[in-house]
Specification:
This protein is an alpha/beta fold. It has one domain: Vaccinia Virus protein VP39 (Rossmann fold), CATH 3.40.50.150. It is 38% helix and 14% strand. Helix 1 crosses helix 2. Bound molecules: S-adenosylmethionine. S-adenosylmethionine binds next to helix 1 and helix 3.
């Protein structure tokens, strides 16, 4: 059949596979199978501008695991993973529960495919849940029964905004939104955030492609990203290029200016 995409056989009802989605494009960049032709077209375009960007997606996933392991080492055993993405390798609950079998994770994403695939992965895991919600509405997120059941807001929480805030426009007031989440969590909670980092001119072109093809994807300056941690105690190494954030093995040299890994910065801050 012309144009038949075998993976379309397991598309949840109501999903238009002709429109690319952020979650599926990221899955395509990571070499996953939960994506369709429209998503792969965006991934191809991104790679055509910056051929090594797939490497950057892999680095980002490695960062996520390092960050979760760090949080677990601080005694954090409950995680709200906002903009969690499609299940892939080293998912938050797998990393967290490897450190502490009792760790609890609520995954939140506005892409309904994340729910469908997440549920399949999590059927046997009573410490995790996945919900479809827009992170721009914290009242809705905190009001969901799954959050109430798995997360105790009287205890420190790992608030994860990994790779998602750059999909919020300036009109969404990301700094104000982050503050609304932080206001709801107890001292000792940590914000773990990563974000596309402006590195002109290459990121100007990338931003254009993201906005045209996906409708979101803002590259913000390191100062803007650092300001998201206002009021928190930034843990060592601060807000830095992702390979430099507490690498498992020390890097022998800092990334070059055209290194794709400079395109994303990350940090963790603790609420005092
Ligand atoms: C690039 S993926 C990041 C996945 C994962 N956190 C990681 O870092 O590997 C961004 C995810 O955020 C989700 N997302 C974007 N805007 C969102 C919103 N307003 N509310 C909830 N999820 C959102 C997308 O559907 C996508 O799955």
């Amino acid at each position: 059949m012309a144009g038949h995409d075998p993976t379309e056989e397991w598309v949840p009802r109501g999903i238009d596979v002709s429109v690319p989605s952020v979650a599926r494009v990221y899955d395509a960049m990571l070499g996953g199978k939960s994506n369709f032709a429209a998503d792969r077209a965006v991934a191809d375009k991104i790679r055509s501008i910056l051929p090594v960007s797939a490497e950057s997606a892999g680095e980002h996933r490695a960062l996520l695991a390092r960050g979760v392991r760090f949080l677990a080492a601080q005694g954090i055993d409950q995680f709200l993973d906002l903009g969690s993405g499609l299940p892939t390798v080293q998912n938050t609950h797998q990393v967290a529960q490897a450190a502490n079998a009792a760790a609890r994770v609520v995954y939140v994403d506005n892409d309904p495919m994340v729910l469908a695939h997440g549920r399949a992965l999590l059927t046997e895991n009573s410490g995790t849940a996945v919900i479809t919600a827009d992170i721009r509405d914290p009242d809705d997120v905190f009001g969901r029964p799954e959050v109430g059941q798995l997360i105790d807001l009287e205890r420190p929480l790992g608030l994860m905004m990994v790779g998602v805030v750059h999909h919020l426009g300036d009109d969404d007031d990301p700094a104000g939104l982050i503050k609304r989440y932080l206001d709801r969590v107890t001292p000792g909670s940590h914000l773990f955030l990563s974000h596309f980092q402006a590195e002109p001119p290459v990121t100007d072109r990338m931003e254009q492609i993201f906005l045209q093809m996906l409708g979101s994807g803002r590259f913000r300056t390191t100062a803007e990203i650092t300001a998201f941690f206002d009021g928190l105690d930034l843990v060592e190494a601060g807000v830095v290029d992702i390979p430099l954030w507490r690498p498992d093995k020390p890097r022998t040299r800092p990334p070059a200016p055209d290194d794709p890994n400079r395109l994303i910065a990350a940090g963790i801050g603790r609420k005092p």
